[in-house]
């Protein structure tokens, strides 16, 4: 007996919102913090690790692009993992991959290895982005889903603020630890500590089940009912027996028939009643159906939806993640320029050219790799302001999205983001750069979050 996802959603709606839903939201919060720490920490590393890795601007660019390459590789892979093994295993694997890659990168003193590990980190990053919104959203009642998913932006903002404060605390320290032939400096310790949200996310995920809608689509009827029973008990404080009775007398025929054929139990499932597919049969079916799923995405009504969302995600992500990892370096260059040339102004390209053209070539500069240059305090402050700029919209959107809808915010944020990106060409000082960076961060990150929220609504479980 395979249960339609609509039946699982009906039961979730009947259970309502409560403690269990908050536990699921905490998963989303920790994953959002983890992805923010992983991505934004790279921006600080690009500036402060230039001495250890002897990086020029081109090599910094390669390091910046490494996680983006990983995201491209992982974007499709994690979809299959989530369909084959479930939302929870996909999240666990992606979080573990990202945390292990980032931690390893912090202790291996090699530029090539660091770049390679950041590619793997990007693969894990993509897995969290692709799985966390369905994971959190599929536990929520329909009436609360929009508001809950919109709140994910708030935790991303806290992540930007948190990692900037952590960088401000750790990087200026004079740390030099010698162990196993490796020298651990302050930036290495900073990268290690930046993996802590991922560790907490992994541990918290271990306490959570998979989503009822995924279990329904996978034919795991007994496990789905146990998860729903657990949700009911935690949310209402009533017993599993009361839940079974409530389902049995439900006015919905599909729900009453479901419970009449199963016994809700919190114990170990009986093999005779568990009609879930084996991993081998699921893999074969998944491979056989992948073509059908792709065909479904390319036919009405999904073809226009997938085209529109793909274009939006590509346009927003290509600028957003690239600029976010470059912001600390840009802030540092503006600070250095204004200190060296206090009465001059220049755009972003002009600042870089002015700083590097003081000498005939890069190698002949007094401090080409920044070994004797500390990160300016304004860099940390500007990044904290950058994260704080997102908070007002991250609060307003969940409170108003039910009334104005996703489309309004999508059009608003995409339009403003496009205009601000174009405006960077006309920036001539650090204050203008910070103002536009804050507007860019607030609207672009919100636009990206809204697109991920829309994906949960637009596509059925089997196509997400």
- Beta-strand segment tally: 2
Order of helices and strands: HHHHHHHHEEHHHHHHHHHHHH
Q: Helix coverage percent of residues? A: over 70%
Distance between the termini: 22 Å
List the helices and strands and how they pair.
Elements: H1 5-15, H2 19-48, H3 50-53, H4 57-85, H5 87-107, H6 111-137, H7 142-150, H8 152-170, E1 176-179, E2 182-185, H9 186-193, H10 196-205, H11 212-217, H12 221-236, H13 240-248, H14 253-260, H15 279-297, H16 302-340, H17 348-356, H18 377-388, H19 391-423, H20 430-458
Antiparallel strand pairs: 1-2
Helix pairs in contact: 1-12, 2-4, 2-6, 2-8, 2-10, 2-16, 4-5, 4-6, 4-15, 5-6, 5-9, 5-10, 7-19, 8-18, 8-19, 16-17, 16-18, 16-20, 18-20, 19-20
Describe this structure in words.
The chain is an all-alpha fold. β1 and β2 form a beta hairpin. The two termini are 22 Å apart. α2 packs antiparallel against α6 and α4 runs antiparallel to α5. The chain is elongated and about 80 Å long. A two-stranded antiparallel sheet has the order 1-2. It has 20 helices and two strands.
Characteristic key phrases:
464 residues; mainly alpha; two-stranded antiparallel sheet; 20 helices; 75% helix
Task: Summarize the entry for a quick read.
This protein has 464 residues and is mainly alpha-helical.
